[in-house]
Amino acid sequence: MDDTTNEKKINPTLKFALEMGPIIVFFAAYLWLRERTFTIGDTEYEGFIIVTAGFVPLMIASSLALWRLTGKLSKMQVATLVLVVIFGGLSVWLNDDRFFKMKPTMIYLLFGGLLGVGLLRGESYLKYVMDEMLPLKHEGWMILTRRLTLFFFVLAVLNEVIWRTQSTDTWVYFKTFGLTAGVFIFFLTQGKLFQDYAVEEED
User: Where are the transmembrane segments (predicted)?
Assistant: First the structure.
């Protein structure tokens, strides 16, 4: 999906801060403002909506900074940013937190759907995104893509269940820590696949 040859190298700590910083700031701001209500004009806004209103421009700024420093953004990063702007904007505009809570669902459905389309065509779109980080044989990419596609759909369903049945506090903790940990654990459990289908250096 992406040409990574033009990507500029930057400090890994700075890159991590730009990628994860907005999420950490969102979480901290929510804990600070969750019990407060703000009146703007004639409309009352809960702390969650105010935090969402701040998160959207922060996400845009961090993405632009990442693009300026590295020379590129992956298609996944661009798609995530677009959905943040759309669903975050709707939540603020309509004063309804449900739209922002739906955002992870839409993101994982989009990613899972795109990977699924590639599988139907006999391709692994995941390979184009991660090939430099994980050099695998074709069979390995296909297996990993099938697993990740299913995993994305599971996360989409799980997000719907959490935000529809649990409190906002629970959802914020789930979004901040649960989803991130879930993706990390998923790749951590694929060690045998990486070992079995790794491309040998001589190849």
Answer: 16-33, 45-66, 78-94, 106-126, 147-165, 171-188
Q: How far is CA 187 from CA 18, 83, 86, 151, 155, in A?
A: 22, 24, 29, 11, 14
CA 74, 13, 148, 137 torsion: positive or negative?
positive
- Report the domain count for the chain: 1
| Interatomic CA distance for residues 194 and 72, integer angstroms | 27
The alpha carbons of the chain give a radius of gyration, in whole angstroms, of: 19
DSSP symbol at 6: T
User: For residue 7, is it within any domain?
Assistant: no
- The whole domain housing 56 covers 12-196
Query: Is residue 3, in this structure, part of any structural domain at all?
Result: no
Whether residue 66 lies inside any domain: the answer is yes
Query: How large a percentage of the chain has pLDDT more than 90?
Result: 64
User: Mind listing the pLDDT tens digit for each residue in 27-81?
Assistant: 999 999 989 999 888 889 999 999 999 999 999 999 999 999 888 888 888 989 9
| In contact, 1 and 22? CB cutoff 8 Å | no
pTM of whole model > 0.85?
A: no
* Distance from C-alpha of 86 to C-alpha of 104, rounded to nearest angstrom: 12
- Has residue 40 been placed in a domain? yes
| Other Cβ atoms closer than 10 A to 149 | 22
